[in-house]
Amino acid sequence: MDNTLKHLAIIMDGNGRWAKLKNKARAYGHKKGVKTLKDITIWCANHKLECLTLYAFSTENWKRPKSEVDFLMKMLKKYLKDERSTYLNNNIRFRAIGDLEGFSKELRDTILRLENDTRHFKDFTQVLALNYGSKNELSRAFKSLLESPPSHISLLESLENEISNRLDTHDLPEVDLLLRTGGEMRLSNFLLWQSSYAELFFTPILWPDFTPKDLENIISDFYKRVRKFGELKC
Questions:
Q1: CATH number belonging to domain 7-222
Q2: Residue of 39, 61, 99, 209 marked catalytic
Q3: What is the pLDDT of residues 170-212, one digit of tens each?
Q4: 61 is an active site residue
């Protein structure tokens, strides 16, 4: 199996706590978190990764106060419009995964427009997980499989392939490194199928304080690990 880091996935946690430490509103932390997102994305694009997936808004985040959800939706739309040139100038393909039907038509159109404008870039893809949850994604994949089953599935491996091909990430490599900032040690319903053999890293650094240098250190540690993929390494 290839040990090269191709797909990095990040749970961006700690915006609210970062703002609270500075006696600011949570919105202030989210704004600073967007800058970190941009910095990390450009670093990854310049360092030969194939894919960066960022957990931006989960299916559970709708439970937050309406004022915060409304702010996040406005901030997302503004980011996708304002940063279009960043994607184009850095040859970054943009993809969104998740149940996008949960968003307004205006926001969906903004997402699709950026996807279309950057679809010709091949070397690096930034993925935003939006209204995303692994249980939701798998449920949609199973529903698709039941509605249009293949003519026959003779092997369990074939069934796994049929499911993988119906996931939002069907055109992306599996996750190699899954990182969570902010100190919590849980996966929060994020890319559970795709992270079967991912190396897990948890850092106490809050997302707004996370830097490309911090990521470099984590990637260095990643390459020190022996990835067995279920095999016995001699």
A1: 3.40.1180.10
A2: 61
A3: 999 999 999 999 999 999 999 999 999 999 999 999 999 999 9
A4: yes
